[in-house]
Amino acid sequence: MTPEEFRRYGRQVVDFIADYQERIESYPVLSRALPGEVLAGLPEHPPEEGEGFEAVLADMERVVMPGITHWQHPNFYAYFPANASGPAILGELLSAGLGVQGMLWATSPACTELETRVMDWLAELLDLPARFRSDGPGGGVIQDSASGAALVAILAAMHRADGGASGRGGVTGRRTLYVSSQTHSSLEKAARMTGIGAANVRVVDVDPGTLAMDPAHLDALLTEDAAAGALPVLVCATVGTTSTTAIDPVRAIGEVCRRHGVWLHVDAAYAGVAAVCPEFRWINDGLAEHADSYSTNPHKWLLTNFDCNAMWVADREALLGALSILPEYLRNRASASGDVLDYRDWQIPLGRRFRALKLWSVIRWYGAEGLREHVRTGVRLAQDLAAEVAADPGFELLEPHPFGLVCFRPLWDDLDGDAADTETLRLMERLNASGELYLTHTKVSGRVLLRMAIGAPATTGDHVRGAWKLIRAEAAAAGPASG
Ligand SMILES: *Cc1c(COP(=O)(O)O)cnc(C)c1O
After folding, report:
1. Residues spanned by CATH 3.40.640.10 within the chain?
2. Could you check whether the bond before residue 208 is cis, i.e. omega within 30 degrees of 0?
3. Could you read off the pLDDT of 143-190 as tens digits, one per residue?
4. CATH of the domain spanning 370-478
5. Ligand 1: which of 71, 83, 184 to mutate, judged by most atoms within 8 Å of the beta carbon?
6. Which interval of the chain is the signal sequence (predicted)?
């Protein structure tokens, strides 16, 4: 493709995206494609001769769009938001356009140094501890995902716990990891990948009311395991759990970790970015004193296209000890000088994209005030919805709901237990099949709850009120006396 052709088709692609943004509300939120339908629309064999890009754009409309669930739709309330924004999309395009591979400082100094600066900016925007900044012993790095960040944290923690023996090989004995029943599943996955093993993932009790990890039980488990000869590697505390945005007591957990000399990783994948607003900085309590690593996802609620996870460590020595490796073909003068960072040593793959460009674009476009406004809007809409749910005798609201997620369930008269859960799930399926909105569910204390996560930039009060009206009407139509 010549630059001239690129210019022509590039304009068409940008127009395609802008048109999509303009008419996104005309699509059913949840794709109605059946299994195999997209596949059946695609030729079985690749083309022998090249085709014009018009053909790709035509198939985008014909084959791809019917199989798209519209994550940027203002009535998308499922999972957590995965905000895409104009500046992030453009930043992503710039990154693709440069096509650099930033594994080493030397392979594109700007790719490394812009990332260093932007991660320091984000640490400042979130008011994170000074020791996470790159001018101290710690520093920030962009990872692909919160799952990847957790895996990297475990590898660093393991290196610190056993002095590198696990990396060299020949380690015997049991190593343990500490989570709660509310911790994200990526921690168990990482335990499998790191050889700790799922059987050595210790599940700390939670307070049945708040679903927050119990530090006293953590203390007891650590004591028991150490006495039995195990090597405790890492404790994961969560700020804003995936199921209900519950918050573990980071400070109290950190004190336990300190006593036992165990690495504390704080997973704030969804909620961490709320700290752009001073009124949410309480979620950072205990980080400065206790967190060895911390991660949050600008690719959820902070307007930055997937993938962009922000991870910080308080001391990068263990991380580099665990992951740096220097084959001859990567040797270069800049790395040897010690004057530069090589982010390949901070992550699993060797290669890395220039992701900092999109985060930089987002922060510059919105500014701190614009980011705060976005978070505040999501929280305000969620609090308004929660007030409506609380006032409705046909529904039960889960408290607390500090961010943009509201969990609730209809109270089905004459039905309880599993029968009520079945009815709630049926309601959810009908709502999602309507195409008007998309929400998901979770289970708390054995009961099914609907989850409504608000935070798409296009969502307004009218959208949320419309969604709530539809939920009430559907519930009333189904149940004998609810709504
Ligand atoms: C979403 C989420 C994750 C996983 O995020 P990825 O970036 O997709 O790996 C991990 N932890 C929590 C608390 C989450 O909400």
Report:
1. 100-353
2. no
3. 999 999 999 999 999 999 999 998 888 777 899 999 999 999 999 999
4. 3.90.1150.10
5. 184
6. none
User: 115 and 340 in contact (C-beta within 8 Å)?
Assistant: no
Across the chain, what does the average pLDDT equal?
96
Burial class (CB in 10 A: 0-12, 13-18, 19+), 322: buried
Q: Which of 242, 243, 248 to mutate to test the pocket of ligand 1 (most atoms within 8 A of CB)?
A: 242
- The segment(s) of the chain belonging to CATH 3.90.1150.10 are 370-478
Task: Answer whether 172's CB lies under 8 Å from 279's CB.
Answer: no
**Where are the strands (E) in 135-262, listed by range?**
139-143, 175-180, 201-204, 231-238
pLDDT at 311: 98
CB of 387 within 8 A of CB of 366? no
Return d(Cα 362, Cα 381) in angstroms, integer: 22
Segments of 208-291 assigned E as strands: 231-238, 263-267
**238 Cα: distance to centroid of ligand 1 (angstroms):** 10
Is 140 or 170 the better-scoring residue by pLDDT? 140
Domain 100-353 is found in CATH 3.40.30.110? no
| pLDDT tens digits for range 56-99 | 999 999 999 999 999 999 999 999 999 999 999 999 999 999 99
**% helix / strand / coil in the chain, to the nearest 5?**
50, 15, 35
The answer to whether the CB of 409 falls within 8 A of the CB of 444 is no
Ligand 1 site, CB within 6 A:
80, 145-147, 184, 186, 238, 241-242, 267, 269-270, 297, 309
**Which residue do the tokens 């399926």 mark?**
429
- The helix or strand, by DSSP H or E, that contains position 310, with its residue range, turns out to be strand 309-313
Instruction: Give the predicted TM-score (pTM) of the model.
Output: 0.96
| Cβ–Cβ under 8 Å, residues 227 and 176 | no
